[in-house]
Specification:
Length: 191
């Protein structure tokens, strides 16, 4: 089949302007963009959280972070008015007890921004999560001063207040992040 000059030009233009295919991290397709409250967010960064069990590293989940514009520093993330979104796609199943213990341990180890009612908000946040199967996706959205929690796209609940958002962000982007390499990945490869 021979293309006309116009057809060939259209084909080249289409190839050059087509969206870049989604990133793949640990076998999970990560969309380049998504919509939150009618606003398009771009993939800021994505990476894998590993945990060590009996000296063996295990890939626990793929985290992806979305923002309206690129955020390349912890300060820029904390200053962003949002909306923002985290997706956590689990690569392993876990019981409700394991999920609860993991979230509580991570809050204790990594949150560096605190406020008087953080313990209550943390307990409410953790209670939204139950047992999970491989492939379960937990989503945390910041819309205005509300933190929304979804599981596989279904709303589980919300926590009001910018304070909780700042504390949650410090877990990933603070001075003692969940994982240093994951922090770098979520910031798009910047430190």
């Amino acid at each position: 089949m021979k293309l006309s000059k116009t057809g060939a030009t259209f084909l080249v233009f289409t190839c050059l302007t087509s969206p870049i295919s989604a990133e793949v991290v640990a076998g999970i397709d990560i969309p380049d963009t998504l919509s939150v409250s009618g606003q398009t967010l771009q993939l800021n960064g994505a990476g894998v959280r590993t945990v060590t069990f009996v000296f063996v590293p295990i890939k626990a989940y793929v985290a992806s972070f979305y923002s309206p514009s690129p955020l390349r520093s912890s300060e820029a993330v904390q200053a962003s008015p949002g909306p923002l979104q985290f997706n956590f796609t689990f690569l392993q199943g876990a019981s409700q007890g394991q999920v609860t213990d993991a979230w509580n341990a991570q809050f204790k180890a990594s949150v560096t921004v605190t406020y008087p009612t953080l313990g209550q908000d943390q307990a409410e946040f953790v209670a939204f999560f139950g047992a999970l199967n491989k492939g379960t996706v937990h989503t945390v959205q910041f819309v205005g001063d509300e933190t929304r929690i979804l599981e596989n796209g279904l709303m589980k609940g919300a926590i009001p207040g910018r304070e909780f958002q700042r504390a949650f962000l410090s877990m990933w982007f603070g001075s003692v992040p969940v994982m240093s390499s994951l922090k770098t990945d979520l910031l798009g490869g910047s430190s």
